[in-house]
Structure formats: structure tokens, C-alpha cells
């Protein structure tokens, strides 16, 4: 979820926003970098906001709603990547390459394939591959530690930002610790939802895109 603002002059130069795509913030960035022929810098505005997807009334409904939102976000990300591929030729080369690599790492590696790769690798090392060299084991443990370090940075930022913005937030340490420990499992579930949604995009892309827009309007 994001809350963003932009100048009217930039919107006019960029011919405003393409109405056929979700994720207006990223679409604007791609579109306007092509129009201005330069990398646009996003500045953070230190204003506390409450932003999040719709929630369910019970745990079961919350999980269903979470999966629905994850599916919609994945469809939107696929649309954004398609839009980027089309518009990248109009963007500065350095900006297009750096932005495209960052997009693939975040959406393609971290969110979609990270959990699935970790699960399949662990299962193969337990049941299929015998006498795994120590160097391979150390590499796998190192990658897992790097992943958890990335998550820990996000948790640390989330812990200090409310204090910097002078926002009273009552979230106890055991709760944060529980969320941190369950992060790999949540990421795995998210990866499964993303894998399903991406196959939907590939097989029935037009119907899914229309459904995604409807979901966006309803949410």
C-alpha cells in the first residue's frame, strides 16, 4: 500500500495516468521517467498515516482476504512489468536498467520465488541429495541468514519510525518476535498465492486483468 502525491505540472507533462492499469504510483513513475527522460527521485514525506488492505471479521476471513489482496497485488505487479517492458525504451538506459533489476529482485525473487526456492531446496537436501558438501550447506544457511537479516531490518525500521514521528504504538516485543519468527512461513504462503496468480495471468490474462480492476474498485 502506498500514499503518494505529485505535482500537477509533472502530471500534465506525462499526460496524466494510464486508466487501464492498476498500481497508479508505479505506473506514474515509469510513464513520467519516459516523458522527462530522467530518473525521478521519490522523496519521503514524514507524515504518519494508517494505510492497509481490507481486513476480515474473523481469523478465517482475514486469511481469505489476505490471499485475495495478495492475488490482486500480484496481478497488478504483472501488469506493471508488462507496462515497464513496453515503456523502457523511452526511459534513460541507466534508470531503466536499475529500476528493472530492483523490480525483479523484489517482486520476482523476494516475494515470488524466495519462499518456494527455500522450501524445495530444503526438501531436496533432506530426501534427494545425499552427502551434501559442507560448503553447499554453509551457502544455504548463509542465504537463509541473509533473508532473515533483511526481514530484521524491516522490523527494526518499523520499531523506530513511530518513535521518530512521535506516534504512540502499543505493540509488545513478544508479538514482534512471533511475527519475525513466522515471517518465512508467511512468505512461503505469499509465494504460493503469487505462483497461482501468475499462472492465472498467463492463461487467462484479459479476464484476470478486468477482475483485478473490479477488485481494486471494491477495495
TrEMBL record:
Keyword Transmembrane: yes
Transmembrane segments: 96-129, 135-157, 177-198
Keyword tags: Membrane, Transmembrane, Transmembrane helix
Highest taxon in the source lineage: Eukaryota
Matching PANTHER family: GLYCO_TRANS_2-LIKE DOMAIN-CONTAINING PROTEIN (PTHR36851:SF1), UNNAMED PRODUCT (PTHR36851)
Name of this protein: Uncharacterized protein
Amino acid at each position: 500500500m502506498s500514499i503518494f502525491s505529485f505535482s500537477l505540472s509533472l502530471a500534465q507533462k506525462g499526460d496524466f495516468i494510464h486508466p487501464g492499469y492498476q498500481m497508479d504510483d508505479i505506473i506514474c513513475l515509469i510513464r513520467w521517467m519516459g516523458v522527462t527522460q530522467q530518473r525521478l527521485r521519490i522523496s519521503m514525506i514524514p507524515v504518519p498515516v494508517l494505510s492497509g488492505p481490507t481486513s476480515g471479521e474473523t481469523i478465517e476471513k482475514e486469511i481469505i482476504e489476505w490471499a485475495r489482496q495478495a492475488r490482486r497485488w500480484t496481478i497488478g505487479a504483472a501488469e506493471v512489468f508488462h507496462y515497464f517492458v513496453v515503456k523502457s525504451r523511452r526511459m534513460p538506459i541507466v534508470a531503466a536498467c536499475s529500476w528493472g533489476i530492483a523490480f525483479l529482485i523484489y517482486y520476482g525473487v523476494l516475494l515470488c520465488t524466495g519462499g518456494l526456492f527455500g522450501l524445495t531446496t530444503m526438501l531436496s537436501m533432506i530426501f534427494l541429495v545425499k552427502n551434501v558438501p559442507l560448503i553447499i550447506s554453509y551457502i544455504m544457511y548463509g542465504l537463509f541468514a541473509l533473508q532473515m537479516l533483511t526481514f530484521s531490518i524491516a522490523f527494526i525500521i518499523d520499531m523506530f519510525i513511530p518513535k521518530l514521528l512521535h506516534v504512540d504504538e502499543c505493540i509488545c516485543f513478544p508479538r514482534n518476535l512471533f511475527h519475525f519468527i513466522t515471517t518465512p512461513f508467511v512468505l512461503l504462503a505469499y509465494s504460493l498465492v503469487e505462483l497461482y496468480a501468475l499462472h492465472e495471468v498467463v492463461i487467462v490474462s484479459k479476464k484476470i486483468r478486468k477482475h483485478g480492476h473490479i477488485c481494486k474498485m471494491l477495495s
